[in-house]
Amino acid sequence: MTPDGMTPRYAAEDAAASVTDTGAGVVTNVSRRAFLLGLGAGALVLAVAPAIAADPPRRYGGDGMPGGLKDDPRLFVAIAADGTVTIINHRAEMGQGVRTSVPLIVADELEADWTRVKVQQAPGDETKYGNQNTDGSRSVRHNFEPLRRAGAAARQMLVAAAAARWKVPAAEVVAQNHTLSHAASGRRAGYGEFAADAAALPVPTGTALKLKTPAQFRYIGKGKVGLIDNRDIVTGKAQYGIDTRLPGMVYAVVARPPVYGGKVKRHDAAAALKVPGVLKVVPLDGAPIPSAFFPLGGIAVVAENTWAAIEGRKALTIEWDNGPNAGYDSAAYRAALETASRAPGELVYDRGDTYGALAKAERKIAAEYYVPHLAHAPMEPPAAVARVGADAAEAWACVQAPQAGRALLAGLLKLPEERVTIHQTLLGGGFGRKSKPDFIAEAALLSRAMDGKPVKLTWTREDDIVNDYFHTVSLERIEAAVDADGKPLAWLHRSAAPSIGSLFGPDPKHQRDFELGQGLTDLATAVPNYRIENPEAAAHTRIGWFRSVYNIPHAFATQSAVAELAHAAGRDPKDFLLDFIGPARRVDPTTMKTPNYGEDPARYPLDAGRLRRVAEVVAKAAGWGRALPRGKGLGIAAHRSFVSYTAVVVEVEVADDGTIVIPRVDIAIDCGPQVNPERVRSQMEGAVIQGIGLATIGEIRFAEGRAVQSNFHDYLLPRIDAAPRAIHVHAVGADDYAVPLGGVGEPGLPPVAPALANAVFAATGRRIRSLPIDTQLAGWNATGTAAG
Amino acid sequence: MVTLTVNGREQRFDGNPEMPLLWYLRDVLGLTGSKYGCGMALCGACTIHLDGVAMRACVTPVSAAQGRAVTTIEGLSADGSHPVQQAWTELNVAQCGYCQCGQIMQAASLLKDKPKPSDADIDAAMVGNLCRCGTYTRIRAAIHLAVEKTGGGA
């Protein structure tokens, strides 16, 4: 099973030779069998028309990301003489389907026959491929336009090559489904016959580039293409980071400080070294707070196999200095956040006179919503193999950000970046955890300590949960009121949550703009008196991105409070939600100073009409308003995130003992055009289940500075018996190519928990303000009779 | 010395017989289709068949396989043609795919015992297999599809 071709090539600089075929787990040299369009190595000029404005315009979207966007077909397309088309995918595959959906964009414009397309994974190199940081629901959203250009340019180069050899006008040559033809002369040829000629031609740009019309799309928007890695996945051949094997490889695990900021006071390795198979015990330095992407340090055990390393680690004796966070206790911290949220916090946004309106209003609510820390717990824990030589390093890793791994290794190993190669394997889940390349650095440091032997570093599940970059913890206090007509009048939202900024610098103790911009400052609401405050919340552990990030607590609080206020006003929650959003209109994001996910405020306004529409579509589809007996209920929530619009209706049944059954969930998404509707659907299904999990059972608590939970017996994830009988996904606006693309991987998650909490209220009259629900509903029906 | 059969081939192991089968399969034999997920039989990513019955390789010592037949995902079918593998492919069950080898091995074992399982049977049999991506509704559908493919006689 060891992939024979996985021989190391230190910092291969040849464009064609530095490509890892993740699907097959074999490094192949494309240039041996394929003609890469273009001449490969060296600097490449971005083929987009320069802006003419006198002042350089602010860059948005992918253009504003490090590395920017690339649309040069020579980077992404190789065509072999036998016609096999190889498309380079430069984004991380972690279950969202990018290894299918991203190459599909190129293949469509290229008019390639998908059955003759192979996908190869790019190594981490942002200078070459453009931005590779796979998070923020950006892969398809940012790459749709440049990769269409790349595919179309390659198609036109093939057409031009055929026209030249056939001595006919290029306009008369048709490229269709892997075939070039000229009707008048009856000539036909496959793509392979003209690949070499085409590669020598200039790349068409600007007005010379002829994109398809959406009506001509062969794959985009159809959802008929299966996953490119399906076969490898179902036969066990798919290669994840943890599956990498190199000749002479040794295996390592690390005992890390259990408390953030802690370090080893003293250790004794004698017993560990006696465990059969253990080769070496290696102390690792850790970075002080803020640790950013640097390893936490600790004591590593290197062995002949993973099990020996784990057994060796058990035999270590380590005394820890737990450092400044030794007292972190999640119950005490929650109380501190509650206290903070009961006094005015840093002002974020203000319109009208919220305090005045609240003071005068007769019908109002005040509620505090709590969402605990969560661990990402991807099924594949962090794992990497590294081989470090004197003047070069190479690593294979399940990393969302290979470019960040490259920079980290270059810094730690004191090598120039071009001497560091990061091969990106498949990721067995990511959810934001694998945006951080700390584990690659551990593998590299250990390889150096083992004199350059390849080292596989595996995080056990306990490591993964105890030393995660945890999802933030949050206390959201909302005070809100309706007017005499039962319409939303005033809304005060105080959001207290430690910031991810604490990972990279002095703790800001307040959420930063990009965090507030996830469900607070980007909220299109018609409430006339509206105020957002941000009380202090210090960080006591590593805080990191978790799928949909601060949208989780912000949406849970807001969408729960909307339903609470509807109840206080005696209104239907769906009708009231629509009033809360207000009439269809486009709000300029700059008026709320929201970062808008880095997108152009003119192209991506806060579109109240789109938010209303997903809510209306999902409500209708779910049969909103149908009568249900006590113990059953429907709940609704709607939310904009990652410039997409989602709404959810959950149907719930609550048994007398508080057990929750979810027969059905409806979710509507408007993410603009859908390149791969099949994967959009699967992302919505997965988000629904992940949302149910965090709403009902997910929680990481801290005591004496360390995470209390450590494996799946106490950190609970939803299992198949918790999955709804049916999840109905409703696509809204998927055919409107006038609208720019929105994100897909994350937007499904935020509305799920509040929709579920609202359904629970409809079923039981019990309002859930603290997640997870866990046993909170036990005995809810002590005096009544539940349905079902 | 432990002697066992792995995917039809006889193997001898003279290392520590207490080593869990999972690490023997992955690190010694290089069969990486069986996945590590928890090491405590809590997630099912490592599910294999021991004499045809689904087992968690992460808590099964190599010694327990003495004289017995181990089947891993690599040996479930020669070419990915097992009805469960076909159904998984047809319905695009996988998201990240990491847990799916274990899911497929568990589902194949279920269908051997119960050729026509109900949703409740499926939930009961598959409850030990975690999927963090949340592919459960498709897993249910794929198991029903596999039943159709075999006419209920897998």
From TrEMBL, chain A:
Keywords: Membrane, Transmembrane, Transmembrane helix. Pfam families: MoCoBD_1, MoCoBD_2. The chain crosses the membrane at residues 34-53. Residues 235-324 form the Aldehyde oxidase/xanthine dehydrogenase a/b hammerhead domain. It comes from the Bacteria. One of its GO terms (molecular function) is oxidoreductase activity. The keyword Membrane applies. This is Aldehyde dehydrogenase. It comes from Dokdonella koreensis DS-123. The lineage of its organism: Bacteria, Pseudomonadati, Pseudomonadota, Gammaproteobacteria, Lysobacterales.
